[in-house]
Amino acid sequence: xxxxxxxxxxxxxxxxxxxxxxxxxxxxxxxxxxxxxxxxxxxxxxxxxxxxxxxxxxxxxxxxxxxxxxxxxxxxxxxxxxxxxxxxxxxxxxxxxxxxxxxxxxxxxxxxxxxxxxxxxxxxxxxxxxxxxxxxxxxxxxxxxxxxxxxxxxxxxxxxxxxxxxxxxxxxxxxxxx
Length: 178
Prior knowledge:
The chain is mainly beta. About 10% of the residues lie in helices and about 45% in strands. It has a 6-stranded mixed sheet, with no helix packed on it. It has a 5-stranded antiparallel sheet with strand order 2-5-6-13-12, with no helix packed on it. Strands 3-11 form a two-stranded antiparallel sheet.
């Protein structure tokens, strides 16, 4: 009787291991921002991004999901405001990939012509965020509560960017707000 119970338990364990559903995520995903010296305002709905200020060229541990960002770029003669939505998705562990994704870094540059996703700058751990070789951030931007443009009236995106890295994907759609 004990042998049949053991075989049944082993069969259930094998069935769970070989199912096509996700098992776990091995690595983490990090988001970093950079900008020109003329970033006027910034806000991000991602709860992993600090609410009071962000450090330029720092990475913040994030999680898969949908997030909205709003920023204004300005200098003495011109300004531009952009709103973008980004989705972070993970390739969860399956039978074909039992370990899931590894650590991924996405670097979003807040340019005057719209957001750009660059290849990551590799970092070392510093104060909960990952920064350039343990140095402090180049500059910091105060995050401001956003009036966030009416998302229903944005229309078709000005641009779409998608990038994948070690099992994570970022899909970013942005709008220039007049």
